[in-house]
Amino acid sequence: MSATISQEEVYHALEQVMDPEIPVLSVIDLGMITGVDITEGQPVLIRMIPTFAACPAVSYIKDNIRTVVEKALGIAVTVEIDKHVHWESNRMTAAAKEKLKNFGIAPPPVLEGDVRPEIMLNTPCPHCGSEHTYLRSPFGSTLCRAIHYCKSCGQVFEQFKPLE
Amino acid sequence: MSSNAALTDLIIKMADDELVLGHRNSEWTGLGPVMEEDIAFSSMAQDKIGHAWALYRILHENLGGEDPDRFAFMRPESAFKCAHLVEMPNGGYDFSLIRHFLFDHAETVRYESLQDSSFEPFQLLSKKVKGELKYHTLHANAFIIQLSKASEEGYARMQTALNDTIALAAGIFEPSAAHEEELIAEKVYPGEKALYHRWLDRIYPVLVKASLNLPDMETITPVYGGRQGFHTTHLAPLLKEMGEVFNLDTEASW
Fold first, then answer.
1. pLDDT of B214-247, one tens digit each?
2. I need a labelling partner for B24 at 20 to 30 A (CA). Which of A73, B88, B161, B215 fits?
3. Transmembrane stretches, by residue range (chain A) (predicted)?
């Protein structure tokens, strides 16, 4: 039965699996899926990676992937953590960054090489677009966020941190 | 490939440091001097416990060790190999910040070195952890510099905390009498002595920016013993508290 399913169908179903902390982004938007293996007579194997090592939502997301894809496609699914790939913020798609900004969270800049403290400066404000901002703390309400302050519109905002 | 005994010893030291300091960091939750700092120490606590868990999982999956939760919460105090530095109570914010600064730079040079380890699970983990640690050292450096430059009192307190903590921090780099040579020869890691020197090179420029004086390391006696299972009186109560819920029902499924 599973052999009739295509990779495209699985990826399409995965677009419905949202991140519990940022509900406008799917696991595809975030670049958390590293592979889909379809072998006849076996459950479809989906490999994923967490954004941060200690992300408390990992088992929740893992279960969500399994139930959503099983329900959408009527097949058995196994979800595995892929140890051979580590998540970096460059895995996030451009469309995802736009959605993030519209959600009120500044997206991470594209990284060329390592994270340096300077790239945390003058992060564009997701509310007014000003770059007249400063980093208040590299830690925010979840492991993947930092807190900034916009001097133009006077608002505190969060950023999805760049991660190398 | 290095022997399991040597690898296991190194992993337990690293993981126990992360677990115990993670617990200490979490004790700032709700008590931080400003909201951002409360969040910072809570986030770093979560990261550290995540790193500990990843290391215990390597023990479990690659070296035939016990289940990570049971290993973390059910060992007697003497089986822990954390350095005395991480066991010390939080004390004031000055000590907590200096400890965070000294430990996180030590952790950074260690994980950077593991990118070239002959032990593959170390290579994979180090790539992940290294990126996360950038934010810990960014935070530590910013606060060390700001507080040292803020006022006479701030400067005096940071310098005193540094003087009081440096021997404990040097104790992170206690080499293993039984396994050190083997781990270096097998290219698992460059060894404690090399890491100690890389650590000094890393903290020194930040201390200069903060106008803090690094005590003369030749006159410092590193506080050893933790790696051999000898601990301060502060560890036992910490372990009791940390394992309290788990030990109510060790077979419970979460």
1. 999 999 999 999 999 999 999 999 999 999 999 8
2. B215
3. none
Mean of per-residue pLDDT scores for chain B: 95
Given the structure tokens 């894809």, which residue do they identify?
A: A69
d(CA A25, CA A16): 9
Closest CA to A65 of A52, A87, A82, A86: A82
Provide the pLDDT confidence category of residue B1 given band limits of 50, 70 and 90: low
Which CATH homologous superfamily contains domain A2-81?
Fe-S cluster assembly (FSCA) (3.30.300.130)
Strand partners, B160: none
Chain B residues near any Cβ of chain A (below 8 Å): 36-37, 39-40, 42-44, 46-51, 53-54, 121, 124, 127-132, 134-135, 138-139
Question: What are the residues whose beta carbons fall under 8 Å from the beta carbon of B240, sequence distance 6 or more?
Answer: none
CA dist B3 to A36, B112, B170, B202, B227, Å?
A: 35, 22, 27, 31, 18
Domain ranges of chain B: 4-248
Q: What is the pLDDT of residues B82-116, one digit of tens each?
A: 999 999 999 999 999 999 999 999 999 999 999 99
pLDDT at residue A3, rounded to an integer: 52
Structure tokens at B103: 């430990």
Could you give the 3-state DSSP secondary structure of residue B241? helix
